[in-house]
Amino acid sequence: MPPSSTTTVAASFTAIFLLLTTSSASPASRPRPFKKIYAFGDSYTDTGNTASASGPNAFTYVSNLPYGRTFFHHPTNRYSDGRLVIDFVAESLSLPYVPPYHNRKADTSFGVNYAVAGSTAIPYGFFVKNNLTLDIQPQTLQTQLAWFSKTLEGHKCKNTKSTPNECKAVFGDALIWVGEIGANDYAYTVGSSVQSKTIQQLAIRSVTGFLEALLNKGAKYVVVEGLPTTGCLTLSMALASESDRDDMGCVGSLNKQSYDHNTILQTKIQDLRKKYPQTVIVYADYWNAYRSVIKNAPRLGFKELYKVCCGSGGSPYNFDILATCGSQSSSSCQDPGQYINWDGVHLTEAMNKVVYESFLKGGFTHPPFGYVLSSKESSG
């Protein structure tokens, strides 16, 4: 049967992207479709805003080896053994790694990363009201938006109505990357009286409001990641009942929670596309990208789907919440590339690379990422 028109279009967009990113020219000489990246999110996107003293309580050793050992060969305050999805995105666009907002000495001419490990989508006041502030990161998506607004003020861009030329100069060549955000909101309320449905409603409302604020400021090209399969993280596997499993072998109730969250989020994104027809908003399907890795793990080189590379406690997961990666009793595996999970919540560089490829080169962004590039090219 001949391919559908949708399949053909998607393939052509992917071909455009591959042509741009696999050129024989050196990265420095390749044309840059975007001149800068502004990134937001939590620990999956944070490139150094969170030092160990202020990060997630169970993962306090991110400033020490073996974090960062695989690629950087030293800790960078990234929650992985190496690069994150956003790092691979920057590489593919021939841009430097996006520096963290808190690094005041960094060159920000190519963008800024505002993501904070442990960050929530819901404002911190909600957790205060519900007495859930113990070990919770107070910096939220709203904090990141405030930081971004300060950056824009430095470019004399307040909003597109009052400073149209300045804002056009900022956003015309900028890719806005909104990493996954919201998983912490659910995690922080486990065991409390707060219902999952409440978190779903408040988190999605917050993310939607955040996206609309970006669009009102002038954002033109936006990628929004959904939640991953949170039930496949080692922490979830270790704490949940073994009777709560799905066809991936992961915690079924948590994966359904994330899936339902993403379904509603996609509806809100579609509404924003209609309201802002001059923008390109891409949904990055983290949930199905992760599922695809689980289902095709041997072919992708992964031998351990749930066991952590860096941790303690032995079989089956090598995970102890009281002795996580970097602690005195922990150790790390010889080949992180064979593992999906790095420390129990965060992923290995190898997994991050596969997820990046699923987003930018595979079929797990809607519309395909190549559509962003072709839109950017046609707009000049």
Main attributes?
alpha/beta; 39% helix; Rossmann fold; 380 residues; two-stranded parallel ribbon
Count of runs of 4 or more consecutive helical residues: 13
The top level CATH class name: Alpha Beta
- CATH fold-type name: Rossmann fold
Q: In percent, how much strand structure appears in the residues?
A: 5-15%
Kindly state the mean pLDDT as a whole number? 90
N to C succession of SSEs:
HEHEHHHEHHEHHEHHEEEEHEH
Principal-axis shape = globular
Task: Label the structural class.
Answer: alpha/beta
- Unreliable residue stretches: 1-29
Strand order of the largest sheet: 2-1-3-4-5-10
Question: Any overview of this molecule?
Answer:
It is a single chain. By secondary structure, this protein is an alpha/beta fold. It is 39% helix and 10% strand. It has 13 helices and ten strands. Strands 2-1-3-4-5-10 form a six-stranded mixed beta sheet, with helices on both faces. A two-stranded parallel sheet has the order 6-9. Strand 1 (36-40), helix 2 (85-92) and strand 2 (111-113) form a beta-alpha-beta unit. Helix 10 (286-295) packs across helix 12 (349-360). The model is unreliable at 1-29 (pLDDT under 50).
